[in-house]
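sorry for the late reply, my laptop died twice this morning and i had to redo everyting from scratch. anyway the thing you sent over, i finally got around to it. pasting the sequence first so we're on the same page, its 314 residues, then the predicted structure underneath. double check i copied it right bc i was rushing
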Amino acid sequence: MSEDAQKLAKAIAKIAQKDGEYPILQSHMRLYRSSDPSRPMPCMYFFGLGITASGRKDIMIGNTVYPMQPGQVMLPPADLPVITSVTHATPDQPYLGLWIDLDIRLMGELAIEIPAPKPAPGDELSCVNVITLDSGINDAVIRLLELHETPELATHLLPVIQREITIRLLHGPLGACLRHHLAQESPIQRITRILSWLRENFTQDITAANLATRAHMSGSTFRQHFKSVTGISPLQYLKQIRLLEARQLMLNDRVDAGSAAFHVGYESASQFSREYTRMFGAPPIRDIRRLRETVHSASEISTQSEIIPARHTI
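ok and here's the structure:
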């Protein structure tokens, strides 16, 4: 583990002293601690910065697994359904990680102001990026964590440090990729707008052809770019966000399985149950009972890390 990762892990552990999720700074940052490996968990990632400080974690996007080691950063380009699992964690050396929300509008404004760095030889644009955390961003993140102890300063310093992190990202190895994502009519930008639209309209009767038309692409071009961003097909994406929403309704609003299925766009309760079981590993009733037991065992800590509402749209 690098010295930077050790410093970050120490700062996280100072706040996250027990296993669970810790939303801080008005939920702009969330800390995670786990003393044991976890089973695979479907969830949604939004535009932000995910950092592993200690332990290890696997993140599956589509059919690709991204192993996250101490000191590594992931920056998803859009709203992505993923499957995460902590693979290395013990009580003495727990998994410690965090998530920081990024403001895509601020990033777009700064991308115009800041000269684009020259791409290094061999650089490739990828839709999902895992890189090593540099010292500048690491120090800025630690200063964010320190604001948790000085709430009277957080209101004024939080946006300043968020801006610094955004500037450092644009100047760093992800700068060219981020600018490509932000380009107004790039294929990635078009797909990102479709993903934002789907998050608001997933209960409608939607076909891949409808989405391609909305994106102003041919069907084959749309499917190609959609899969390059999300790792899955448009209809697989739609199914996953419907099931994640249904799970949240049953867990948080105590809606029964049949009503949840209908609410998210399913016409067949049996189809909903089959697809839910395939995604979450248990039928709806059993899965929600297990989740509520987990919530009860960690009642002092927020336990909604699997389903995080979208905060930023493009």
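Strands lie at 20-24, 29-34, 41-45, 48-54, 56-61, 64-68, 72-75, 80-88, 95-101, 129-132.
thats about all i looked at so far, will dig more tmrw
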